[in-house]
Amino acid sequence: MKVLLTGGTGFIGRELLKHLTTYEVVLLTREPRQAKSTLNHTDMGNVTYISSLDDFHHLNNFDAVINLAGEPIANKRWTKKQKQTICDSRWKLTEKLVELIHASTTPPEVLISGSAVGYYGDQQEHPFDESLHVNCQGFPHHVCSRWEQIANRARSEMTRVCILRTGVVLAPQGGALLKMLPPYRLGLGGPLGHGRQYMPWIHMLDMVRGIIYLLETPHAHGEFNLCAPHPVSNKLFSQTLAKTLKRPHILHTPKWVMSIAMGESSVLLFDSIRAKPKKLTELGFRFSYSRIEPALKNLLQHHE
User: Fold this and answer.
1) Which residue ranges form the domains of the chain, and what is each CATH number?
2) pLDDT of residue 304 exceeding 70
């Protein structure tokens, strides 16, 4: 199977490549030479690097497209310029991929395209699945809603579309967990605000297994919550992380502190999203880590 992959040098993409060794992968990256150096331990000789889609007039030679590219949403304050960068990095590339799929006489069988649980906005403590329809005003919903609309244009009798509404992906080498580890190791960890906000998390292994499961399941289509079956409150997550690290759990960070530090993007920490992966589990996918304590023990033991 020949796969066109975007975002292959990113947090999830790097791990996904380790599991695509039996596939022929064409990796779209702005810096092919740097990407090849970064991925030298991952590339088993099955990866070709390209810097642009400008020379492509169709995607007839590809069996699948996995679209994970996008400016990290949590790395910088949401200035007007940064918001535009976040949007453009997702929307414009996805529009180009959809254009090329439509131009194909034998298009890829599947487009797997990124999104996030931020699509749902703050749902307080109510559990929900992919059937929930929302219409909120927050920036994460704005980004994801438009991103999904663009990707879904690729859908046809020949091409199915799977949308990845991704939760907080846990891995010690990047993402949220990497940022949390230093203060927690110093005994300075604790819940954010009142800590009752729900956090839809997923172990990195289940994240990449989920993507490959959707890639290899011909009847899979639509939106999928890529998060573990048992989301936890911020307070429980914080307690479990401290316990796993054998550190005290006595501090907490007031919401106003994070609001000053992060500005509008602090909604990523305080929106409560109790998302359930109903569609993925109904397809037959089985999570390796459905509970937070075994997941953190595995990740941190491996890291140590």
Assistant:
1) 2-169+201-228+274-288 (3.40.50.720)
2) no
Please, what is the average pLDDT of the chain?
Answer: 94
24-59 per-position pLDDT tens digit: 999 999 999 999 888 888 878 899 999 999 999 999
Three-state secondary structure string covering the chain: CEEEEECCCCHHHHHHHHCCCCCEEEEECCCHHHHHHHCCCCCCCCEEEECCCCCCCCCCCCCEEEECCCCCCCCCCCCHHHHHHHHHHHHHHHHHHHHHHHCCCCCCCEEEEEEEHHHHCCCCCCEECCCCCCCCCCHHHHHHHHHHHHHHCCCCCCCEEEEEEECEEEECCEHHHHHHHHHHHCCCCCCECCCCCEECEEEHHHHHHHHHHHHHCCCCCEEEEECCCCCEEHHHHHHHHHHHCCCCCCCCECHHHHHHHHHHHHHHHHCCCEECCHHHHHHCCCCCCCCHHHHHHHHHHHHC
Closest CA to 180 of 121, 245, 232, 259: 245
Dist. CA 110–CA 228, nearest whole Å:
24
pTM over 0.85: yes
pLDDT at 215: 98
Q: β-strands 274-275, 127-128: how paired?
A: parallel
The residue length of the chain stands at 304
